Amino acid sequence: MDSVILLVIGLAIFAAGYLVYSKYLGKRVLQLDPAFRTPAHEKNDGIDHVPTNKFVLWGHHFTSVAGAAPIVGPAIAVIWGWLPAVLWVTIGTVFFAGMHDLGALWASERNKGRSIGALAARYIGRRGSYAFLVVIALLLLMVIAAFAVVIKDLLIGNPSAVIPAWGAVPVAILIGLAVYKLRWNLLAVTIVGVVALYALIVIGDQMPIVLPDPILGMSPATFWIIILFLYAGIASLLPVWLLLQPRDYINGVQLFVGLAILFVGTIIAGLVFGNGFVAPAINTAVPEGTPAIWPLLFVTIACGAISGFHGAVASGTTSKQLDKETDARFVGYFGAVGEGMLALGSIIATTAGIQSVARWEEIYSAFGQGGVGAFVEGGGNIIEMGLGLPQSLSATVLATMAVLFAATTMDTGVRLLRFVFQEAAEVIGFKMNNIIGTIVVLIVCLALVFSQGVDGSGGLTIWPLFGTTNQLLASLTLIIVSIMLIRKRRNAFVAIIPLVIVFVAAFWAAIVQVGTFWNGGVETNWLLLVLDLVIIVATIWVGIEGVVAMRRAASEPEEAEDSDLVDHVTTTIPTSR
Length: 577
What we know:
The chain has helices spanning 2-29, 39-42, 54-66, 69-77, 82-109, 116-123, 126-157, 162-180, 186-206, 220-237, 244-273, 293-300, 308-316, 327-352, 357-363, 371-387, 391-427, 434-449, 466-487, 493-518, 523-555, 562-572. By secondary structure, it is mainly alpha-helical. α3 (54-66) packs across α17 (391-427) and α11 (244-273) packs antiparallel against α17 (391-427). It is globular and about 65 Å long.
């Protein structure tokens, strides 16, 4: 019963955030203008810049930023108890993630759809932008490499998810053709697409695909990783309307259907069977070796509360597809709310869905345990208890959901990292086209993934740095949003307050990790130590440049009206220091 109360309170907080706070941000702070000519219209090329229906674009943005992280982070963080995790997810989503995602999207589309890295050069300075690009590149590398390993493990551990996971690709292509070429009704296409996707889930549950070992001279793990990277490379080069948008859109709809199944199952299981938490609200008996809740909670739950990766997606792909500026509130802020709901579902599944206290303690016997496996197990139990669906089918639904989100994030990450490499190449005077840029990304990522062996375990080598790097990037993105608001003499505190809190927690965590890596005594820890120090130096660099830029912005004359900004931004904002 207590899980039902928590679910209702959490959903009410998210609803209030979108209906009240996001409206204030959109109207009073960012002053979204429906007449503003967005980059999607200004640069419409049919490939990257495409005016898009806000519901379709929300699907792309949401599933690209969600991935497996809002499942994994909360599913690990509940080791400190479900209450701290819920508080950070709800408060973080409403006041931190919503502002960050909406602000990053607004900042980019007000500057011709430029990426966060390019905006750093414009608002912070050329020197600071170099450090900014380093942080972004490392974060994207972590996401791509690690998610490839996560998807591989899910496909091997849940063979019933293979058919629906790969079957979603042709379904998405057909949806793209139906909507953009045949001009069919979006609602009708959506219904058919969702039915087709869930039909594939039922088929997959009855026909699990277990690869032979070896297959084409490779282990199943190696095979899946290579196939995943080939798919991600091709998908990142296709026009956004053909695969990226429709796949992400139908996955977004599928997620809400999956969440609805999980939440309805939670309500029925709680009201009818009295199902409640097996985990403590605050865990005072954490396993030996578990780090202190401060500041690790705030970087363990990265996506689901606030995530710098969202700013990279918002400015890298989403801003180039925004049809009207006022759509940014639904796409950006509600995208953050959707991820918060997924994180809330992960918390409930891993604390109320596990069958017994003994089983929960077995899963969470050490810090870092839990993750997607605990989510699939706990969520499957809740759906079976509440809705009567077989546990295997319930697990297939949740495993497919996790695979699809991780896959969309992975190939979006490949496209974004290609943008970063192309920007870096321009700095040194080299022109890198899309195909060459994609090949370079794939080579670098595959080298990392296979650096520890053919099983792909190297993909998780630098993952321990993800949480701190992700949150530090979020704070750096909020610096840019703050500078823009200060220049326009608007309420910048809505960005500055989250900026300070996130920066302090993430920077503290980075310092703590330096000691952890130094004392680890393992060879791979030297790599983590060096990268952590690079990230710390880059963050300090950008932070100092950002504070200087904010002070300068406060002393300069008020910036021109938004309607004039994009046309003469290069003359009003310095591009170098």
